[in-house]
Amino acid sequence: MSTFKHPYNWIDKIEIQNYDNVRYTPYKFNLLYCASRDGNTAAAFHKKCDNKGANIVVIKIKNSDQIIGGYNPLEWNSSDTDRATKDSFIFSITNKNDLQSAKIGYSNGNQYSIRCYSNIGPYFGAHDIYINYYGNND
After folding, report:
1. Taking a C-beta distance cutoff of 8 angstroms, is the pair 58, 31 a contact?
2. Is 40 inside a domain boundary?
3. In total, how many domains does the chain have?
4. Domain that includes residue 35, residue range
5. CA of 48: how far to CAs of 44, 51, 53, 117, in Å?
6. Cβ proximity of 81 and 116 under 8 Å
7. Domain assignment present for 138
């Protein structure tokens, strides 16, 4: 994983040169799914997130200040297939109050970049980050 000293646009893979534009983002974000609101199951995740296009997954680690997640430039679906892309990434923020603690790792483009399985939530890499839901697919 890489650590960046300057503001960096992870999606477009560019360093932000103008610090006045650090808060500017050319993207529109919509909350598609929240486990505490929508249900903590694979079925609930796929009902809300399948076929919605590129997305970011953000996971707060219970009883810590750590946040992890990933970017899927494709889309989630329930096809039980693996998909290759070099544009996906995973990230870890050790301390949510210190964004300088952020680390990012980009996909190498192999067939396991994004994994779309109906009985599992978001799944990045061979086993890098995934939500299993303990087999609960209600």
Report:
1. no
2. yes
3. 1
4. 7-132
5. 6, 9, 12, 14
6. yes
7. no
Burial class of 30 by CB neighbour count within 10 A (0 to 12, 13 to 18, 19+): exposed
| Assigned domain for 47 exists | yes
List C-alpha distances in Å: 17 to 9, 22, 25.
10, 9, 14
Q: Please state, in angstroms and rounded to a whole number, the distance separating the CA atoms of residues 15 and 5.
A: 10
Summarize pLDDT for 32-48 with one digit per residue, the tens. 999 999 999 999 999 99
Q: Give per-residue pLDDT as tens, 98-118.
A: 878 889 999 999 999 999 999
Q: Name the token pair of 30.
A: 């919509």
Unique residue bearing structure tokens 């929240």: 34
Residues of 77-93 as b/e, b for ≥16 C-beta within 10 angstroms?
bbeeeebebebbbbbbb
- Residue 63 belongs to a domain: yes
Say how far apart CA 92 and CA 99 lie, in whole Å: 10
pTM value surpassing 0.85 = no
